[in-house]
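Worked example

This section walks through a single chain of length 51. The input is the sequence exactly as stored; nothing has been trimmed or padded.
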Amino acid sequence: MERVFSLILRGRDTIAWVRGEERMAFPATARPEVERLAGGDELLIYAMRGT
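Given that input, the structure is written out below as C-alpha cells.
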C-alpha cells in the first residue's frame, strides 16, 4: 500500500542533493517516523522560503 509523507527541507545544498540523487538520507538514530517508510511510499517535498 503506497502512502504519502511530507518532507520539509531547507538549504539549497540539501534540496539539490535530494533532487539529484532521487533519494533521501536519514541519520542512523532510530526514529519512528523514518521506520514507517517503505519502498513505493511518496515523499512530498516542501522547500522552505528563501531556498
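What to look for: Residues 11 and 50 are 9 Å apart (CA to CA).
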